[in-house]
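Incident log, structure service

09:12 report received: a user says their structure output differs between two submissions of the same chain.
09:20 pulled the input from the user's history:
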Amino acid sequence: MTDALEEIQAFLGCSTPQAWIEVAAKPESLAVLLIDHAHCEKKAASTAMNLMFRYVDRSDLLNKMSRLAREELIHFEQCLALMEARGIEYGHMSPARYAGGMREKVRTSEPGRLVDLLIIGAFIEARSCERFAALAPYLDAELSKFYRSLLKSEGRHYQDYLGLAEAYAGESIEERIQEFRELEMQLIQAPDPDFRFHSGVPDSQQAA
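09:34 re-ran on a clean worker, output below:
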């Protein structure tokens, strides 16, 4: 998995800031981390299903997104089980600005819209994978094992999204990837008032 993580790191362009890891590793952050992680898994399944319903004529997309949605729902169920065992109640949580910020640059005409959504999917999955690996050494044995177990599937999801984007673009997407890479780096490195699984650098109050 080391080679895959190195590939993902190069794709992202920046590592998760240490300040975010320090806040995420605090015992008082655990409930927020797990609840938001569960929401992220559910949203990832929903995103895959939405792509399946919108682009019904693309068999490769249908097959890969169907598998992805099933895996994300299994991860969602695993998060719920971990939370229940720890007495953490799943509930509503306001979303991070991360995914919404990425989608602000999505083109409106096809196939640009589809390509952009797939590129964003690749970045979200890659960042999730990178954060699982970054967090694992700081968590208790059970959570560390769980997060490490997600690395393989999340890494494959990143590759699936990126491969589909390249296949459907009909041209090089390197410039478009770089545009989203710069945006993603800004969202990850900028100060963020709310701690979430995909949030930016926590503000001074959270980091205290």
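09:41 both user submissions now match this output. Likely a transient worker issue. Closing.
09:42 reviewer note: The beta strands are 191-192, 201-202. The two ends are 34 Å apart (CA to CA).
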